[in-house]
From TrEMBL:
The chain crosses the membrane at residues 12-29, 49-72, 126-144, 207-224. GO terms for cellular component: endoplasmic reticulum membrane. It comes from the Eukaryota. Its EC number is 4.2.1.134. Belongs to the very long-chain fatty acids dehydratase HACD family. GO terms for molecular function: very-long-chain (3R)-3-hydroxyacyl-CoA dehydratase activity. Pathway: Lipid metabolism; fatty acid biosynthesis. It catalyses: a very-long-chain (3R)-3-hydroxyacyl-CoA = a very-long-chain (2E)-enoyl-CoA + H2O; (3R)-hydroxyhexadecanoyl-CoA = (2E)-hexadecenoyl-CoA + H2O. GO terms for biological process: fatty acid elongation; sphingolipid biosynthetic process; very long-chain fatty acid biosynthetic process. It holds the Pfam family PTPLA. PANTHER family: VERY-LONG-CHAIN (3R)-3-HYDROXYACYL-COA DEHYDRATASE (PTHR11035), VERY-LONG-CHAIN (3R)-3-HYDROXYACYL-COA DEHYDRATASE 4 (PTHR11035:SF16). It comes from Suricata suricatta (Meerkat). This is Very-long-chain (3R)-3-hydroxyacyl-CoA dehydratase.
Length: 239
């Protein structure tokens, strides 16, 4: 009994510190981007990666620990969706953006970082407070619904970043490798295949989201009708 309480306390303390570090990192990124935009205007979007790229890479690298959290059972989440999300971000950030200096100056990098940080600030705030037993209705609603409009926009921004990086990968031959036999790894083809997979996943996500939204609307209409019917029946019985 005492041992289990101690283990639970240590687990919650570790998770709280982890979520707090991630929240502080992403909040600093978002605040830095906001202040720089109001100070320098559109010019701040060009050098977004140079100003906050290091902190963004640290936060995304640290987020790989979440796979271990889920695997050992200290974080209640599903492994496959989180693995796919982290893999998607690692590929875009480290493979596409970091490797091509010309891509780092594109506006889409700033837009993509804004979307990522909006999602992560809400998610890590909600997770951090949940560990210590604090819940706010607005924050819970945001953590469960904000991703629905933001995630498709993230996918579009990621796809546009890949599209803009293709000419540079083709010109510089980054990651393209000549094999000993009559084959070669031409990395732009790999990116085009990944781009196609992103759009397929986006359309599947939209279909699932539309079905879920229709279900919620139908349930709300049904419940409202039941409440109205119950109210009329109650008034009739009182009369």
């Amino acid at each position: 009994m005492v041992f289990s309480c101690v283990c639970r306390y240590r687990k919650n303390t570790y998770l709280f510190i982890y979520y707090l570090i991630q929240f502080c990192g992403h909040s600093w990124i978002f605040a830095n981007m906001t202040v720089r935009f109001f100070s320098f205007g559109e010019d701040s979007m060009v050098d977004t990666f140079y100003a906050i790229g290091l902190v963004m890479r640290l936060c995304q690298s640290l987020s790989l620990l979440e796979l271990l959290h889920i695997y050992v059972g200290i974080e209640p989440s599903r492994l496959l969706p989180r693995f796919l999300q982290l893999t998607e971000r690692i590929i875009i950030l480290f493979v596409v953006i970091t490797s091509q200096e010309e891509v780092q100056e594109k506006y889409v990098v700033c837009v993509l970082f804004i979307f990522w940080n909006l999602l992560d600030m809400v998610r890590y705030t909600y997770s951090m407070l949940s560990v210590i037993g604090i819940a706010y209705a607005v924050l819970t609603w945001l953590s469960q619904t904000l991703w629905m409009p933001i995630y498709p926009l993230c996918v579009l921004a990621e796809a546009f970043a890949i599209y803009q990086s293709l000419p540079y990968f083709e010109s510089f031959g980054t990651y393209s490798t000549k094999l000993p036999f009559d084959l070669a790894i031409y990395f732009p083809y790999v990116l085009k295949l990944y781009l196609m997979m992103l759009f397929i996943g986006k359309w599947l996500f939209c279909l699932v989201s539309a079905f879920f939204l229709c279900f919620l609307v139908s349930a709300a209409i049904y419940l409202s009708r039941q409440v109205c019917k119950h109210g009329r029946d109650r008034k009739g019985s009182l009369a």
